[in-house]
Design a protein that fits this description.
- The chain is α/β, with parallel strands linked by helices.
- It has a domain at 2-179 and 231-261: NAD(P)-binding Rossmann-like Domain (Rossmann fold, 3-Layer(aba) Sandwich), CATH 3.40.50.720.
- It contains eleven helices and 13 strands.
- The strands form four sheets. Strands 3-2-1-4-5-6-11 form a seven-stranded parallel β-sheet, with helices on both faces.
- Helix 1 crosses helix 8, helix 3 (62-71) runs parallel beside helix 5 (93-114) and helix 9 (268-279) packs across helix 11.
- It is globular, with a radius of gyration of 19 Å.
- The two termini are 33 Å apart.
- The relative contact order is 0.15.
- The model has no long low-confidence stretch (mean pLDDT 96).
Length: 336
Amino acid sequence: MATLVTGGAGYIGSHTVVALHEVGRDVVIVDNLSNSSPKAVAALRRLTTDDLVFVEADLLDAESLRRVFADHPIDEVIHFAAFKAVGESVEQPIRYYGNNLGSTIGLVEAMVDAGVSRLVFSSSCTVYGQPDEVPVTEASPTGATNPYGWTKYMSEQILADVAAAHPLDVVLLRYFNPVGAHPSGTIGEDPNGIPNNLVPFVMQVAVGRHDKVRVFGDDYPTPDGTGIRDYIHVMDLAEAHVAALDALAGGLRGAVPINVGTGVGSSVLEVIAAAGAAVGTAIPHEVVDRRPGDIAKTWAATDKAAEILGWRPSRDLDEMLRDHWRWQSRNPDGFA
């Protein structure tokens, strides 16, 4: 049997494919390459196996999705495929709602029709909106401050409703801010266009693709005035997805939300300084106005992940940035 990974050529998906291969699972990737590259698939095959299955298809195409389930022996699914930039979602809400909700609905419909009952969903800490307290627990109030966050919030509700009505069990992995790369430097984050997230932008500044980092606001109620986030190594995150599949195979039932983070918050300025240490030179930056939809601070409570999944992160911020720099320095133009 095989694990279907939607969006498996993307940043988090590709690293999870490697983690799945390392524990002996066969993988089928479905990706429309809207935010990835055929060269990412080639790199994945170098890290895994030459016959890694890749299907170029859009989850909004119901017939293509039906054929994937008909043509391959799929018994579990990890769903990454979604647009994911907060700022872009504020500018393009219709596009985000149409793609992110439509792909989730189409996927679970195909799963129900095919009798596939185990799903790990790529959710986000954005479902907590602006938290009243930190660390954020799975019992914290949910909501959102931007369309991207609302698509994750609404997708979670859709999946919970389907799980209540059909044989479907779901782990809703609410993860925080993935950074880093595979330690080989073979795969890493390669966003199309200008990166919307901090670390890939910082690393592109370091290789000369941009002149400086824009820090969106230094007047937040935090120690240095910049936003605080919980950054997690993408390989730790990938291993959490494997642990979630194992929990479902072991009998975990229903729709279960689980935070995936380190439990440690780092500010924008702290990340820029740590990146400079990894690169070996200071990263130029300037403070500009706040970005719509951003929040002041958030980091995760991770007890539930340890209890239910038996998973804990093992890599710190310095290792995240060293690995990210190894990827970026060896691939200054990404997969291009």
